Amino acid sequence: MNTIPRRPFGQSGLTLPTIGIGCSDMGNRNRPRPPQEAAETGHAALEAGLNWFDVAPYYGLGLAERRLGDALRETPRDDFVISSKVGRPLIPDHDADIGKPRHGFHSPMPFRAGFDYSYDGVMRSWENSLHRLGLARIDILFVHDIGAYAHGEEDPERWREFIGGGLRALNELKSSGAIKAFGLGVNEAAVCHRMLDEAPVDGFLLAGRYTLLDHAGALPLLDRCYEQGVSVIAAGPYNTGLLAGGSRRSGAMRYDYGAPTAEVLDRLNLLEVLCGAHGVPLVAAALQFGLGHRAVASVLPGVAGAARVAETHALATITIPAAFWAELAASGIIASGVPLPSVKG
User: What are phi and psi of 250, to 5 degrees?
Assistant: First the structure.
């Protein structure tokens, strides 16, 4: 079953499978999930060769890290790669109503999420993640939700805090061998350009900005990253659900965390017509699209349960004809200048 190729992550020496496992659902995102599902996800992913897992303290307010660590702890440590995030520490909350959703998670963990991009904040976040995971190493750390998209008017202050403190912590962790790589985990390209202007990183986890329905704005960043040997993770390939469910479920699905616009639905309808004409599942096209760019080390969907792991593996290994990608480009669905995936994926 292990037919997933691997690509290098920046200059770190790490290689990642071209499809990773996003673990936000292990934190009960949107609905409660049984604890054993996390173990089933981890074991099935390892068997399928999808042995890179991305998690964060924010996911389930600590629950996802606990569940992921429990799922993987008895596996030899060098058999998998874990990335987690810093910058959104968990703060004990004695008044937390653990029976109600908080931050979109149905979590029994009595914490709330804050922001801290300082030297001490990054170091504490890293150590606390190790404790929740119950593991001795995290391979990659991404700085979570930094930039104007997340912080608005507070962005300049948060950026100074990171450049003046958190960045030094990440460099120390990497130089000591405690981590192998670091970068930013964000929803915008602009802050990634700013990072490249100021200091070297291994890569970016860019969520929802290099997908079949939203990619033109990120193309200059990906081109720049390739020239500089920096990798990009194309996270959120389904645009928070729309490209997984298609127009038949558009009333219930979300696009970029909100309702899809009429213009987005028009492009989706055209995309579905072209998928039907070529016999290509929409969700497979969405999953494989990002791998056309040489800067992309891996595509990162959210995956929960052994059945979803098997489905994701199957979608990743479907052969999509070159004529399909060419017609998407001719129709304008894929923007001008965007490299098309190869038939081999």
Answer: -60, -25
Residue 339 forms part of a structural domain: no
Dihedral class, residue 166 (left if φ above 0, else alpha if ψ from -120 to 50, else beta): alpha
* Residue 256 belongs to some domain of the structure: yes
To the query of whether residue 59 is one of the catalytic residues in this protein, the response is: yes
The answer as to whether 336 is a domain residue is no
Q: Identify the pLDDT of residue 147.
A: 98
pLDDT level of residue 345 (50, 70, 90 thresholds)? very low
Q: Mean per-residue pLDDT for 171-181?
A: 98
Q: Which of 25, 58, 59, 174 is catalytic?
A: 59
Residue 226 catalytic? no
Residue 342 inside a domain? The answer is: no
Which residue shows structure tokens 């993640």?
129
The reply to whether 256 belongs to the active site is no
Tally of structural domains, the chain: 1
Nearest Cα residue to 242 out of 229, 233, 251: 251
Least confident of 153-167, 238-252, 331-345: 238-252
pTM of the complete model: 0.96
Q: Which of 25, 58, 85, 117 is catalytic?
A: 85
Do β-strands 21-22 and 15-17 pair in parallel, antiparallel, or remain unpaired?
Answer: unpaired
Nearest to 184 by CA among 165, 164, 207: 207
Which are the contacts of 309, defined by CB distance < 8 A and separation ≥ 6?
21, 41, 44, 45, 48, 50, 303
Euclidean distance between the first and the last CA atom of the chain, given in angstroms as a whole number = 16
SS3 for 223? helix
Domain containing 264 — which CATH number? 3.20.20.100
- Tell me which residue range forms the domain holding 113: 6-331
